[in-house]
Specification:
- Helices cover 34% and strands 23% of the residues.
- The protein is an alpha/beta fold.
- It has a single domain, classed as Rossmann fold (3-Layer(aba) Sandwich).
- A hairpin with a 5-residue loop joins strand 11 and strand 12.
- The longest helix has 19 residues, at 152-170.
- The mean pLDDT is 90.
C-alpha cells in the first residue's frame, strides 16, 4: 500500500472551549472523506471513578498516556494506521479501541496536544482556543447537562477542581500556537453564546497569513473587521477582530478573498455549511466569525498540502 504524509492540524483548548465545533466545520470545508479526527482525550489513563479515587483530574499530564499520543501522532504523520483508544465522555469509561487509517488531513483535538516537543513536531498548523471563562462555563453547562447527563452542581464542582490544572497545564500551551482563537460576546449582548459572538484571532508570524488589506481598506460604515498590531504572551502578533454583527456583504468579501488564496487544485472545497451552528430550537444558524475562522484555518492546511510552505 502506498504511504503518504498527511497534513496535521492541532486544536488545543480547555474543556468546552469549542474544539469540536471548530473541528467539525474545518472537516466539512476540506471534505469529510479526506479528514481523520483524533481526540487526545481518548488517551486518559484512568476512568472517571479511578480519577476520583486518585484525586487527579483529566487535565493533568500524569492522567494521560502522553508517550502513546506521541507514538500515534508520529505513526499517523508517516502515513501509518493506529489502534486508537476510545474514552466515552457520557459513561466516564472506555469503549473498545478503533482502527484509524490516516487520510490526507488529520485533525488532532484535545486538552494536552502541545505539552511535549515530540507532539508539537508532528503538526503543520497549531491552533489554541481561548474563550473567556464566563462563556466557556455557559458552553460547558449547556453541553454536559444536556448531552452528557451531568448535573449543574456537578459541572460547577468539577470546573473548580480542574482550575489549578487548567492554569498549570492547559493555558501555557497557548504559546505554541500559530493562531489563538477567542470567541467572545459583544459588550451589548453579554449573554450571547452562539451565532452573534465576536471573534479575536491572534495571527503569529510562524505562518504566512494572507494579506487582507484589500478588504480592510474598503469603507464600510458598519465596520465588522479590524486588523491591528498587538502583543501576545510578550511577542508581536497581528490581531484580526471579526464582529458577530458583520454584514453579509462584508463577510462575503473576506470569504472571496480567502478563497482566492487557495491553491487551484483544492478549490473544490465545500462552503455550504461553513460557520453552521445549531440554534436553541435545533435550527441551523450561520455565524460569519466562525465561518471565516474555519476558512482561514482550512486555507493554511490546503497551502501546506500543496507544498506552498516549503
Amino acid at each position: 500500500m502506498r504511504r503518504f504524509n498527511p497534513i496535521v492540524l492541532g486544536i488545543v483548548g480547555d474543556s468546552a472551549a469549542g474544539k469540536t465545533t471548530l473541528t467539525n466545520g474545518i472537516a466539512q470545508v476540506l471534505g469529510e472523506h479526506r479528514v481523520a479526527v483524533i481526540c487526545t482525550d481518548d488517551y486518559h489513563k484512568y476512568n472517571r471513578v479511578e480519577r476520583a479515587k486518585r484525586k487527579i483530574t483529566a487535565l493533568h499530564p500524569d492522567c494521560n498516556y502522553l508517550d502513546i499520543i506521541e507514538q500515534h501522532l508520529e505513526l499517523l504523520k508517516r502515513g501509518e494506521p493506529i489502534l486508537k483508544p476510545n474514552y466515552n465522555h457520557s459513561t466516564g469509561d472506555f469503549d473498545p479501541p478503533a482502527y484509524v487509517e490516516p487520510r490526507q488531513f488529520i485533525i488532532v483535538e484535545g486538552l494536552l496536544g502541545y505539552v511535549t516537543k515530540a507532539m508539537r513536531g508532528c503538526y503543520d498548523v497549531k491552533v489554541f482556543l481561548a474563550p473567556p471563562e464566563d462563556l466557556r462555563l455557559m458552553w460547558k453547562l449547556k453541553r454536559d447537562v444536556a448531552k452528557r447527563g451531568h448535573t449543574q452542581e456537578g459541572v460547577l464542582r468539577e470546573m473548580a477542581l480542574r482550575k489549578p490544572d487548567s492554569e498549570a497545564y492547559i493555558q501555557p500551551q497557548r504559546k505554541w500556537a500559530d493562531m489563538v482563537v477567542s470567541f467572545y460576546p459583544p459588550p451589548e449582548h453579554k449573554n450571547e453564546m452562539g451565532a452573534h459572538l465576536n471573534v479575536s484571532l491572534v495571527l503569529r508570524p510562524t505562518l504566512p497569513h494572507p494579506d487582507l488589506s484589500t478588504v480592510l481598506a474598503q469603507d464600510d460604515e458598519k465596520g465588522g473587521l479590524r486588523l491591528e498590531l498587538d502583543r501576545d504572551m510578550g511577542l508581536p502578533v497581528d490581531r484580526l477582530e471579526i464582529d458577530g454583527s458583520i454584514s453579509e456583504d462584508r463577510a462575503k468579501q473576506l470569504v472571496n478573498l480567502l478563497l482566492g488564496y487557495i491553491p487551484g487544485e483544492h478549490r473544490q472545497l465545500s462552503k455550504d455549511h461553513i460557520g453552521a451552528i445549531t440554534g436553541t430550537t435545533g435550527e441551523e444558524i450561520r455565524s460569519y466569525p466562525l465561518a471565516l475562522t474555519q476558512l482561514l484555518v482550512g486555507l493554511h492546511l490546503l497551502k501546506a498540502a500543496s507544498g506552498h510552505y516549503d
